[in-house]
Fold each of these.
Amino acid sequence: MGNAEIVRLFEEFAVLLELTGANSFRVLANAKVARAAESLTVDLVDLARTDPKALSAIDGIGTSSAAKIVEFVTTGSVKDLEGLRAQVPPGLPALLGLPGVGPKSVRLLWQERGIVDLASLESALDGDRLQGLAGFGPKKIQNLRDGIEFLKTAVGRVRIDQALAVAEAAITHLRAAGVVSRIEPAGSLRRGRETIGDVDLVAVASDGPRAMQAFCTMPGAAKVLVTGPTKSSIRMQDGLQVDLRIVPDEAFGAALLYFTGSKEHNVLLRGRAQQRGLRLNEYGLFTDDGLDAPQDRHPPLASRTEAELYRALGLAWAEPELREMRPLDEVCGHAPLLTVDDIRAELHAHTTESDGAMPLLELVQRAKDRGFHTIAVTDHSRSSVQANGLSIERLLAQIDAVREAELRVGGIRVLAGSEVDILVDGRLDYPDEVLAKLDLVVASPHASLKQAPEVATARLVRAVRHPLVHILGHPTGRLVNGRPGLEPDMHAVIAAARESGVALEINAHPARLDLRDLHARMAIEACVPLAINGDVHGRDGFDVLRFGVQVARRAGAGPDQVINAWDAKRLHAWIASRRGG
Ligand SMILES: [Zn+2]
Ligand SMILES: [Zn+2]
């Protein structure tokens, strides 16, 4: 405990007082203590323990504030603050994080419209329920919408693999406890976005209270944010929020559809329902009698499954990954998307020769066990010193080892390749006569990832135009939630790839997912083939393929567009064609 905690204590006091409508003098007094504590160099906690009287002598801290500090330091909490917290919905202060929104607005939203957190503000905006609220004109309402988007993307989003691990642990826990008969992740996790705000789970439970109890006490749960018969929210130790909604069995499809989103997709579906004199909500599809809550008066026309709901709207089912800002006729009944099972070849893998964990033979054996018809060995090139990149001599020796491994393991084609560095100016890290000896060349940028966009564009275009390159590996070098990487003109890179017949990689590692979904879609539209590679380093290296596949699915890719999904004959012919064969 230190001064920072004292600052937060009084900031919270000020916020909660303001939200509960306390007089402005008290609000200001607490804000003033927070500011005073912030600028002090003396240790207030220490002072509270050793010389409490001296506290109230500090400029800006009065007697009552000093007493609160002492109470906080000795008991760990302050009774007055607990009282205020009990009055204010726990999700309400988060609204203050919206740009341009102050306590007065938040209090108005709460008191006049029953808004208690960001989610309820969002649904009020969706339902046009802010109309007539003093000071909330069209411009302010638009600002709120933008602000919510900003909050969602700017803070607290975790990588999809991290969110998926939490979701799967929760599902396993609830199933093992025998309290749910059906359970599915919804939200952006189901849509396969690269980062996730919070995890949404939709379930059917025979015993609701027991299910909620099991959920709120699951391993790793740090705090129960809210719990009720149909919805509970918990915060995990790593900060991720998980929401569980329990819905009636007969409304499972409608709830899953509603909570999967995206918001834009749901708006389109509701509009289509409206055109047909129907009403779509989280309970099902109903005849529209002009009143709210049609589920209280009508049996649903459809509600059990998503497919049933789409059908009742005259549509084919839409893959969750496609339910983004796209017209319904583009996503409903889309041609079959790629699945993980379609992937039959890994074209980017490292061994212990560079920075991989598996020796060559083990890598080949595991690829064969996985059912792959082809594995390419692509260790790092000589400039990647930190990754123990191969000298020309070591690379040439590895080609012989690869030929031998193919014979020894049998039943799988083993390609001698390299993940060759794209140097800062777009040249490659080995001379052409060396590259020409390889079966497969993946060219990737690893260094100088902060180049100006036009320099990066020229660099990547030059590499793509190189006649010996097959695949442009992780084209931008970005790391999800880590570094932005190169920001080339992707249209130019894709155009060059199309011209020279190079494939663009979706690196499936969840920290990379590079190409990203939008760029993968651009590549598909330009008829540039995609490669989905695990960039295998460890023994679990193939397990990440699902994430790369999800990016490809979001881009609308089917097996035809992904070279790793081609049969051996077609893939090998394509690879050979890049060698004039
Ligand atoms: Zn790499
Ligand atoms: Zn690699």
Amino acid sequence: MSAESTHINSPREIPVSSAKLSDFPHNPIACLQQVHEECGEIAAIEEDGSKIVCVFEPKLIQQVLTDSQRFHSHFFALRGAKKSAQRRLTNGLLTMNGGDHRQHRRMVKKPFALPSIPAYDEITERLVSEMLDDWKVGEVRDLDAEMTTLMRRLTSAVLFGMDYPDLSEEIGHATDRWVRLNHDTGMAAYVSGSFSDQYEELLQLASDLEERIRDLLQKRRHSGELGQDVLSILMQAHGRDGAIDDSQLIGHITLLFGAAHLTTAHTLIWTLFQLAQSPFIMSELYDELTEETECSWDDKSSLGYRVLRESMRSLPASAYLQRFCSEPVDLGPYHLPTGTGVLFSQFMTHHRSEIYDSPFEFRPERWNDISPTPYEYFPFGAGPRMCIGAPMAMRSMGSILPKILRTFRLSVVPNVDINANVISTMLAPTTPVPVEIHAPDKQFSASSISGSILDLVHLPEMPATDGLRRAA
Ligand code: HEM
């Protein structure tokens, strides 16, 4: 039966929330909570003839994530004119669909496949050690700045190698600014329709960033030496069969940089923050980390594994995802015409109380007893577009976090505001996250804090149950 003929049997009108589309960018999570409370598992947000359909039920999310033929991906950024640098920079996997996406994903995925990942251990170890050598007991450090810098340096090294550190660093900084400006410009377009000044700035920044990436490509080509970094591997794919042209290479590299370093940095920040505010959990974890037989965080029976899983559940770095219908499609009892935007959220799904008891509490021990489906827990997405960097992110976080937590005790500076919001679909700190650096003296204690983070996670000082370290 075709989608059109099914439509005749399913003419129901999709419920419309009282939330407006222009409310969404200010606080996407609060807006989604309002839509869900008012209208249930599937509903629209509208304004001035524009509409996005929000989907909350995991079975419906499964349909959207797995049917990549009808639910296409589109980039959150404004794409720019056809031959502009902005268009080329946004040419990565997230804007590709169908056969193009499958072909390019196969190539781009290769350097991030499991057998390649141990090659990045040494540089990870070196960069964390350099960061920790710089930290002194008694100092206050901003976790946001520290983790973002660490991940920018690590991502530069993995993507571009170590031959041109200054240029790689410049590309990293420019990419950060570009991601931020894409968000601001996109949101200004969403809210007011007036974004021309920011848009001009964005186009200029896109040209500068592209020029630097081209410079790096040229240097690599002229040196005649290709290394083991991701850029070299993709350039070889280019040379071998011409499968990736320069403009696609630029799009892939930009997306890889943007997708890799901020998501991982935010996950590190939220994990360290939640642990610092959960003294009993931190105390158990510290004992595990300092045991003679070191327990890897890959090991499902380790508390480290459950802490990281729980952290990505309670404050997922990727807060929501979007698709649009490439053809008419039935979703639940509703019919969606071509072009309808569809939005679904990790944050909302990870806080469904029928799957996660007391969902706003940070409780790693819950993972002893639950095994949600890939559509009930999807910090890295799911289906044919699932994150290609997930194994690498898990491995690097599983080595960075234990090293930090063994070397120092961190406590959140008392009486500060810790604020979070969704920026370019990522749940990010919007103000510094200051922590005091202490010797590893095991004197774990939570600090009194305020700020919007308290709307997103409740951090009990006492464990909810015994047996934190009970194996799954
Ligand atoms: C904790 C860290 C990370 C998180 C939470 C994360 C999250 C995600 C999510 C949710 C998606 C799915 C997007 C969608 O379905 O529309 C995704 C896709 C992607 N991620 Fe990650 N990611 C992380 C780290 C990385 C790293 C380290 C890399 C690169 C090495 C990377 C590269 C990508 C790419 C290229 C895609 C697009 C895949 C495609 O469209 O086929 N990510 N990521």
